[in-house]
Amino acid sequence: MSVLAPPRAIARSHWFNQPPGLAVLFLTQMWEIFSYYGMRTLLVYYMTKQLLFGQQHASLVYGVYVATFYFTPIVGGVISDRWLGRKRAVIIGAAIMSVGHFLMASESLLYFALAAIALGNGLFLPSLPSQIDDLYAKDDPRRGSAYNFYYVGINVGGLLAPLVCGTLGELYGWHWGFGAAGIGMLLGLVIYVLGARWLPPERPRARELAPATRMPRDAMRKRILALLGIGLCVMVFRGAYEQSGNTIALWADVGLDRAAGAFTIPMTWFQALNPLLVIFLTPLLVMRWTRQAGRGQEPSPAKKMATGAFVVACAFAMLACVDAGAGGHAHWSWLAGFFLLFTIGELFILPIGLGLFARLAPAGYAATTMAAWYFASFGGNLLAGALGTLWSVMGHAAFFGAMAAVAALAGALLGLLDAPVLRAEADNRVPA
């Protein structure tokens, strides 16, 4: 059986020199991320200020929720690949998440609402991006940049979320912010349903593949080991990375001088810096990597990811020095500088890893393999939640220094995986 070809309409049509199906997936994911980050931006503040949870309790709830958000895709990916198919999984998952966001309006239903969002996300998250690769032929030169464009869509939603949901929640009431997140999820669902004709057909299930098209055992082993190693490194990295929505948010509230003249910058606005920088920096990095590729000098995926982890380590090390010298009253520009370095590092690691998992997915297991990428986020968020409990028992400077060490460890481990990943990618380019 040959590689699944995209529909004729998709192959002929372009959206910014990309298939229009990418725009559908881009906008669907954008609104899903708007809803997720809109709720997440408010969650720690809501628990500590409205529900009066202690910091350690709130940090654990935050960490467990975000980790569960990335654990349920493991089950959802299997259900999608074996039974539902990716399109139905996206629609059902988006509907369940919409209900969960609106349930956040009730304080007594907090845990039930979080569970509903995580459950719906289990079907949605692996099934949506796993459709991107099927929009392109194997030799399509646009295929490599597709996930960078998709990642911009993710961050447009992440940019709007704190500005809309954060501002509504902080100034007018938490439930207004949560309601806006629910409306965003419904918009994503409507866009996906209306744009279904531009999406690729369902892939055949693994059990439906002819024996001749199944991957040789040795090639499968190389892929699994390479992806397992990358996933474990990303898990360590996220222990530090996910502090941006947890302890970094708390530092913006208590350790930062947010005055800009007579105006005090709302603490939730700083969460918009990261996605804003992703939108502006992504084209610059893609152009740089394209020029390097033309000269045959583009770094390998694992080297890019290792570089990203080390840059994030530098960002946390900078905060450690700033907090130690500022005595708990650092100027807000230091946090802006942190997010600049943090975002550069992120762009070297997260979209690169996402695309790597998509390219190396065995036939019939697209959603399951994508779910494995998000499983690394599950473990990383559990680690981040546990590390976040140290915030109230360590000095802030010492905590930031520890996060720099965690990110640097991930970078060192990723550097060791360069050769195995290159071998797995080389096998992937050989036709079955």
UniProtKB/TrEMBL annotation:
Task: Write down the membrane topology.
Answer: Multi-pass membrane protein
Please give the chief subcellular localization of this protein. membrane
Q: Where is the Major facilitator superfamily (MFS) profile domain?
A: 21-423
Q: Which domain of life is it from?
A: Bacteria
Q: Which UniProt keywords apply?
A: Cell membrane, Membrane, Peptide transport, Protein transport, Transmembrane, Transmembrane helix, Transport
What subcellular compartments does it reside in?
Cell membrane; Membrane
Cellular-component GO terms for this entry: plasma membrane
Biological processes, Gene Ontology terms: oligopeptide transport
- Family assignment from sequence similarity: Belongs to the major facilitator superfamily. Proton-dependent oligopeptide transporter (POT/PTR) (TC 2.A.17) family.
| Name of the protein this chain belongs to | Peptide MFS transporter
Q: From what organism does this protein derive?
A: Agrilutibacter solisilvae
State the taxonomy lineage: Bacteria, Pseudomonadati, Pseudomonadota, Gammaproteobacteria, Lysobacterales
